[in-house]
Imidazolonepropionase (Tenacibaculum polynesiense), 410 residues
Amino acid sequence: MTTLLINIKELIQVRENNIKKVSGADMKVLPTIKNAFLLLEDDTIIDYGSMENVPSSADTTIDCTGKMILPTWCDSHTHIVYAGNREQEFVDRINGLTYEEIANKGGGILNSAKKLQETSEDDLYEQSSKRLEEVMQLGTGAVEIKSGYGLTVEAELKMLRVIKKLRENYKLPIKATFLGAHAFPTEYKNNKEGYIDLIINAMLPKIAKENLAEFIDAFCETGYFSVEDTDKILEAGKKYGLTPKVHVNQFTTIGGVQVSIKHDALSVDHLEVMNAEDIEALKGTKTMPVALPSCSYFLSIPYTPAREIMNAGLPLALATDFNPGSTPSGNMNFVVATACIKMKMTPEEAINAATINGAYAMNLSEEVGSITKGKKANFILTKEILSYGAIPYNFGSVLIDSVFINGKAI
Ligand code: NIG
Ligand code: FE
């Protein structure tokens, strides 16, 4: 079945050749076609171009006058599967406690882990699927989801099985990351080696056997997992074929970037605190730096130095970090707006970072992230807007008319 979208005011992020990512000064360039058509066959983009060359017919035709089309957002870093919320800690922070102080009192990740351990797999699925549906309506058409609120063998497997079930029941690409190394459970507080041993020798073999994850992550941070711990965990993951995508440099720079690169990480995520050596280390690697501006916003911590990263010729991706503690929002429109407003990215840079570079950071470059023949027909049809710059400019508004996944409006 063919679907033809006509009179598109501007077709955005058109890439004739399927380039995998954009870096440095190239991020300023966002290729578009004005007054365009887009032709789909079933779930795939098969043609596009100027309205002067519009095909004469199709099974279905949709008139897009005044509206624009861009690829759906590629959210390469989320923790969408969680139980309950942490609203009380939000209020505690308003009243003066820091994120670190809350964690040190047994709150934070351990609080979410306790809730998740007490929640049934079915209930966890219900809560998580609602969040997934919400972000899809906000324009997300490919997503990565992490475990890491289980912290026991059973609860980590429960989270990963929920991610698997989401993948089976929803049509967007979903990638799973094993994040057993998210925090040390209280009972291992004085036996960190014991918990790392549990991750490596009990969790990893089971996850690999059930084929529950493609990526491995660790929270490499002062007070969480050291560079040496991270090194061991990534090394063990590699034995099971898991590619690293790693939480680094959120609060301190301790060598997380370097250890991730050592293990050929697909991405290094957070990067709120970066020194010159961290930026230098990323040059010439295949590792995608990923910024999470909604986390900086919610926790009032520094924003990733996007300009310095791009000036070094590096690529940059944007993602939400949707999770109950540091970023209870999965809205990529807000991420793009905040990247422009707070990180001084141009709309072109931010849209590149949230689409094609986000796809790269999930190993999905062949499927999504641009309007390219052969890619999945996952795209956003905007409301009537004057220019695509309205997406970050009118921050807080959702300028989406409809979201198409596999060629169908959801
Ligand atoms: O990416 N920093 C580590 N993990 C999450 C937040 C965890 C939490 O507070 O629940 C993040 O920000
Ligand atoms: Fe995260």
Q: What stands out?
A: The longest strand covers residues 2-12.
